[in-house]
């Protein structure tokens, strides 16, 4: 049942989840990753590629760029977009920082960011899922199961966060978004 739901979650537009978002599908590929270079972000208003810090892009646009960069494996570009966000202590930013660091192999630093995100917002199911996936990948199944229990206790049963972590515990495979 879970495998069927996970397959649907990863393919159906209304079910799949991407990094740091309430959107349950992988990020849409845009000009940010198809035309822009060197971590620039496509500005829909000016129809040009712009540097994240040098632009007037809002945090929502930057969040979408981080998701797209992370999904594309462009982690340095994701970091630069995060650096331009207005609230560096926002739990979503901390979650992104954890995700990117985990994907870059900086597991200890990633766990620090996830912990900081959860201190800010204990109900951040995405941070719990990503933390648990990192723990599962490292072979720390008891700690990963604690995060899975927390997700369920906080209303996250049958969400992408729960299903992805349960799958990571079962298979050792983690997600890139």
Structural class: mainly alpha
Query: For the CA atoms, what is the radius of gyration?
Result: 16 Å
Q: How many helices does DSSP assign? A: 9
Domain module tally? 1
In the predicted model, the low-confidence regions spanning at least 5 consecutive residues are 1-23
Oligomer: single chain
Strand order of the largest sheet: 1-2
H/E series, N to C?
A: HHEEHHHHHHH
CATH superfamily: Tetratricopeptide repeat domain
> Which CATH class?
Mainly Alpha
Overall pLDDT metric:
87
Strand content: under 5%
Describe, in short, the structure shown:
This protein has 177 residues and is mostly helical. The chain has helices at residues 2-11, 31-34, 59-71, 75-83, 91-103, 107-120, 125-137, 141-153, 160-171, and strands spanning 41-43, 48-50. Mean pLDDT is 87; it is low at 1-23.
Write up what this structure looks like.
The protein has a two-stranded antiparallel ribbon with strand order 1-2. The protein is mainly alpha-helical and 177 residues long. Helix 5 (91-103) runs antiparallel to helix 6 and helix 8 runs antiparallel to helix 9 (160-171). The chain is 57% helix and 3% strand. The longest helix is centred in the middle third of the chain and has 14 residues, at 107-120. It has a single domain (2-171), classed as Serine Threonine Protein Phosphatase 5, Tetratricopeptide repeat. It is elongated.
Main traits of this protein?
2 strands, signal, Serine Threonine Protein Phosphatase 5, Tetratricopeptide repeat, 177 residues, disordered N terminus, single chain
């Amino acid at each position: 049942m879970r495998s069927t739901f996970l397959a649907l979650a990863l393919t159906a537009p209304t079910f799949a989840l991407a990094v740091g978002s309430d959107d349950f599908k992988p990020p849409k590929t845009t000009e940010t990753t198809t035309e822009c270079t060197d971590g620039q972000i496509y500005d829909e208003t000016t129809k040009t590629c712009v540097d994240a810090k040098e632009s007037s892009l809002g945090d929502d646009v930057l969040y979408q760029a981080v998701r797209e960069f992370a999904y594309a494996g462009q982690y340095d570009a994701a970091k630069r977009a995060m650096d331009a966000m207005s609230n560096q202590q926002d739990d979503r930013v901390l979650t992104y920082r954890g995700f990117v660091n985990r994907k870059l192999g900086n597991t200890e630093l990633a766990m620090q960011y996830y912990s900081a995100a959860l201190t800010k917002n204990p109900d951040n199911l995405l941070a719990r899922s990503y933390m648990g996936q990192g723990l599962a990948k490292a072979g720390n199944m008891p700690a990963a199961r604690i995060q899975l229990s927390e997700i369920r206790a906080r209303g996250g049963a049958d969400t992408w966060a729960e299903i992805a972590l349960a799958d990571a515990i079962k298979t050792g495979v983690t997600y890139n978004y």
